[in-house]
Design brief:
Strand order of the largest sheet: 1-4-9-6-7
CATH class of the largest domain: Mainly Beta
Shape: globular
GO molecular function: hydrolase activity, acting on glycosyl bonds
Distance between the termini: 23 Å
Protein name: Carbohydrate binding domain
Helix content: 25-40%
Strand content: 25-35%
InterPro entries: CenC_carb-bd, Galactose-bd-like_sf
Structural class: alpha+beta
Number of strands: 10
Largest sheet: 5 strands, antiparallel
Number of helices: 2
Number of domains: 2
Keywords: Hydrolase, Membrane, Signal, Transmembrane, Transmembrane helix
């Protein structure tokens, strides 16, 4: 087999495997709300106007649009993890600029973060958490009676969503691009050899 073709296939395979591994490392189900609804999540409290919307996603086509009419709404999910192991919890949040608003995040019964009067423009928030049980509850308590808080790309993984995972994604893309280059180079050399042998 042509040397460039072997290199191309190897790089392309490693890149695709790396990218699929990064995407798969999330203990939150439907964390990007790409089902178009709240599948795998539980809504409670004041959820009259809470919905999954295509108006302002961070990535993909959808995000959770969290609004209320009179009180506090709750969005929660029971996860399956290894107790006493450290994890990284991350999520992206923005708003439509409406005030006042609030968002309180808890995990395994403990408060993780509390926000008041969030502004527009997606921001990532990440926290290291250690569950004490195998099925901890991740919960977002929200209030916004005049607009929406948009939540997207909720993730719980064993590595950070900021430097490490993004680096892996970049490496995966580079390997994939290297694979494409190797395959094209191999085809070019094969074509050149064929033309040369025809004379």
């Amino acid at each position: 087999m042509n040397r460039y073709l072997r290199i191309g296939i190897l790089c392309l395979t490693m890149g695709l495997v790396g990218l699929s591994g990064v995407r798969a490392q999330n203990y939150v189900q439907n964390g990007g709300f790409e089902t178009g609804d709240f599948t795998d999540w539980t809504l409670s409290g004041d959820t009259t106007v809470a919905t999954v919307s295509s108006a302002d996603p961070h990535t993909g086509n959808y995000s959770a649009a969290l609004g209320t009419t009179y009180g506090t709404g709750y969005l929660s999910q029971t996860l399956s993890v290894t107790p006493n192991q450290s994890y990284f919890l991350s999520f992206w949040v923005t708003t439509d600029g409406s005030l006042p608003n609030s968002l309180d995040v808890s995990f395994d019964g403990n408060s993780v973060a509390s926000f008041q009067n969030l502004g527009p423009g997606y921001q990532i928030y990440e926290y290291q958490v250690t569950p004490t049980v195998a099925n901890p509850v991740l919960q977002f308590a929200f209030q916004d009676t005049s607009g929406y808080i948009y939540l997207d790309d909720v993730r719980l993984g064993t590595s950070s969503a900021t430097p490490e995972v993004n680096s892996l994604v970049g490496l995966g893309f580079l390997l994939a691009l290297g694979g494409v280059w190797g395959v094209r180079r191999a085809r070019t050399r094969t074509k050149a050899t064929t033309i040369s042998n025809s004379y």
